[in-house]
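Much of what follows relies on a compact textual record of a protein's fold. An example makes this concrete, so a full record is given next.
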Amino acid sequence: MGVTRVAVVGDSLSVGFSPAFTAEGLDRSSYLYTALGDDAVLAGGTAVPGATSLHQRSRASAVEADVLILALGTNDLAWGLPFDETAGALRDIARIVGPPPRVILLAIPPLEPELGPTTPVYNAWLRALAEAEGWEFVDAPAPVRDGDGWAAGMSNDGVHYTARAARLVGEKVGRALRLDRPSSA
């Protein structure tokens, strides 16, 4: 079946503490390290700590890829950006990058302290956006939550993944990458 080429546009949750956001530069602190495996490769994209969707829209560029992972929203929520601006930026990013045959939009993890709107509300908006655009929605942080908050040992700061959490999120994203379905999930 070949190697799946993956483009990613994200923030610190995608890059982790990796020395570089490249196929060779990812380390175990990035969920992508686990998600990609032997049959998928990071074909390009951008992941910058602290980045909002608006910031990443200006950094996005065309990437020859089979799948685009959009992993943004945590900083948008933290900075209080209106969701319609986030949604517009995510649509623009998908258009700029390709669009590839598949777009996967990831849920954001919990934030502590919780802001308004809450992350469950924000994730519902992200899910609705994915459905409206014909993208797949993946609740990648589900294995690291306990209710609406972080499960014990999954975040040291209420925002970022621990190494164990990055592996669990990566496993969930990896399963989504390996599903051969072109519609929203």
Remarks:
- Residues 4-177 form a domain with the Rossmann fold fold (CATH 3.40.50.1110).
- Confidence is low (pLDDT under 50) at residues 181-185.
- Helices lie at 12-15, 31-36, 53-59, 74-78, 83-97, 119-133, 163-177.
- Residues 26 and 84 are 32 Å apart (CA to CA).
